[in-house]
Amino acid sequence: IFEYNGSALVAMVGKNCFAIASDRRLGVQLQTIATDFQRIYKIHEKIFIGLSGLATDAQTLYQRLVFRHKLYQLREERNMKPETFASLVSAILYEKRFGPYFCQPVIAGLGDDNKPFICTMDSIGAKELAKDFVVAGTASESLYGACEAMFKPDMEAEELFETISQALLSSVDRDCLSGWGGHVYVVTPTEVTERILKGRMD
Amino acid sequence: MKFDTSGLESHGQLVGASDGLFSGFPTAPSFEIPNTTDFDCFQKEAIQMVKPAKGTTTLAFIFKEGVMVAADSRASMGGYISSQSVKKIIEINPYMLGTMAGGAADCQFWHRNLGIKCRLHELANKRRISVTGASKLLANILYNYRGMGLSVGTMIAGWDETGPGLYYVDSEGGRLKGMRFSVGSGSPYAYGVLDNGYRYDMSVDEAAELARRAIYHATFRDGASGGVASVYYVGPDGWKKLSGDDVAELHYNYYPVQPSVVEQVMVET
Question: What residue ranges are annotated as transmembrane (chain A) (predicted)?
Answer without folding.
Answer: none
